[in-house]
Amino acid sequence: MKIRGNTLWRVPVFCILASVVCYCLTIYLGGMFYAVKTVDADGTIQASIDPFRAMIFELVLFVAALLAGGFLVVRSMNRAEIAVSAAIAGVLCLALRGVIYAASQFAPAAMVWLLPLLEWSSELNTVLVRLIRHSGAAYGISLFAPFLLVFFGKEKKDERVTGEAAGI
Description:
It contains six helices and two strands. The chain is mainly alpha-helical and about 170 residues long. The protein has a two-stranded antiparallel sheet with strand order 1-2. The radius of gyration is 20 Å and the shape is globular.
């Protein structure tokens, strides 16, 4: 198995860029889709979030980012390369979550800058928490989100030469 060194950066960079884009779309467009505003009899405006519409919005963002990454970023890679690159992205994601946890203890303002870097896998985490109602399992499953890109890779061709191909 030969892994090209110049492809190992693709999945981690994609995960970070997809996270930032998903974060911006959630901030700027999310309110239009899942915010519910009602006006009381006295004229006060009550704002709330419809959890079902929020889950649908987050699922659509996750799937759209997954398809974009699968067709635009990792399509030229084979599945082994994507798996190694996804493992690197998973380790970086886990390390970043540790840094965010430490920052929440000592410098809560740092979380504002670090949380958008994990938004893509957090979209999956949020959907899974609402579906399976177990946050630990959802958190564990969402760590493997980069491995979903493996399905978009090329299958490794058999490198052995058969008798027919060799002309024997």
